[in-house]
From TrEMBL:
Organism expressing this protein natively: Orthoderella ornata
Protein name: superoxide dismutase
Record has Protein biosynthesis as a keyword: no
Keywords: Manganese, Metal-binding, Mitochondrion, Oxidoreductase
InterPro entries: Fe/Mn_Superoxide_Dismutase, Mn/Fe_SOD, Mn/Fe_SOD_BS, Mn/Fe_SOD_C, Mn/Fe_SOD_N, Mn/Fe_SOD_N_sf, SOD_C_sf
Manganese/iron superoxide dismutase C-terminal domain sequence ranges: 161-264
Pfam families: Sod_Fe_C, Sod_Fe_N
GO CC annotation, single: mitochondrion
Length: 270
């Protein structure tokens, strides 16, 4: 059988934040320019927050998510110590990656949301639209990393594919080894910074691979439900692997948390 064709996020690029309904809201209402701006601003505000919050809620454990509309996002705790993934990923990298990089995404996301609330209160639709890139980048960074931490586990407890997930992998990729090889090649081939993902296509009911640039979140961008992601931003590996990205990608399979991946798969199918 032919190999599945990976999805390139840029090939299915949608409006700025890529939340369903945003393009429709941006269409001008010619009945009343002033009232239309106010209505559109309110709708955009609702869509931006709802899309981002829904995506974060799906991406992290319920205990880490606060549903109150105006509560700030917080940095989730790691489910293991910083050094628990050694030798695959050093404790120094994990500490910097989590406490500095992920923390920065959370902080900047909160700042962007505060500015968004101010712009909405003023009815400033231009300011609302201009904040979309910051919300997408920092919101995506928060979503992606929250998944990433749980996608990994100490080698002694990382497990292996089994049950429904293993059957789906064999059906869609031929073997677990083929999946690893294809996703690894996709990750190594990402130009610049980004992510390589194993995702679930709910419409076609199959597993698919996708590469996303920067911090573009997988589900709002491609429609695939994220199961396992490989972060190929240099801050994820450079201190340990220098410019040899393939070595990092090869090692990450040693700490892939197959229990978490399997749970995400079962949930995505339901």
């Amino acid at each position: 059988s032919s190999e599945p064709v990976p999805i390139c996020c840029s090939a299915v690029f949608r409006p700025p934040l890529q939340f369903p309904g945003l393009r429709r809201v941006l269409l001008p209402d010619r009945r009343s320019a002033g009232s239309a701006d106010r209505v559109s601003t309110n709708k955009i505000m609702i869509l931006l927050r709802k899309g981002l919050l829904d995506c974060i809620r799906r991406s992290q454990p319920r205990v880490l998510f606060k549903t109150a509309q105006h509560e700030k996002h917080t940095l989730p705790d790691l489910p293991y110590d910083y050094g628990a993934l050694e030798p695959a990923i050093s404790g120094q990298i994990m500490e910097l990656h989590h406490s500095k990089h992920h923390a920065a995404y959370v902080n900047n996301l909160n700042i962007a949301e505060e500015k968004l609330k101010e712009a909405q209160a003023k009815g400033d639709i231009k300011a609302v639209i201009s904040l979309a890139p910051a919300l997408k980048f920092n919101g995506g960074g928060h979503i992606n990393h929250t998944i990433f931490w749980h996608n990994l586990a100490p080698q002694s407890s990382s497990g292996s594919p089994e049950g429904e997930l293993e059957k789906a992998i064999i059906r869609d990729f031929g073997s677990v080894e083929n999946l690893k090889n294809q996703l690894s090649a996709l990750a190594v081939g990402v130009q610049g910074s980004g992510w390589a993902w194993l995702g679930y296509n709910k419409q076609m009911k199959i597993l698919q691979l996708a590469a996303c640039a920067n911090q573009d979140p997988l589900e709002p961008t491609t429609g695939l439900v994220p199961l396992f992601g490989i972060d190929v931003w240099e801050h994820a590996y450079y201190l340990q692997y220098k410019n040899v990205r393939p070595d990092y990608v090869k090692k990450i399979w040693e700490v892939a948390n197959w229990k978490d991946i399997s749970e995400r798969f079962v949930k995505a199918k339901s």
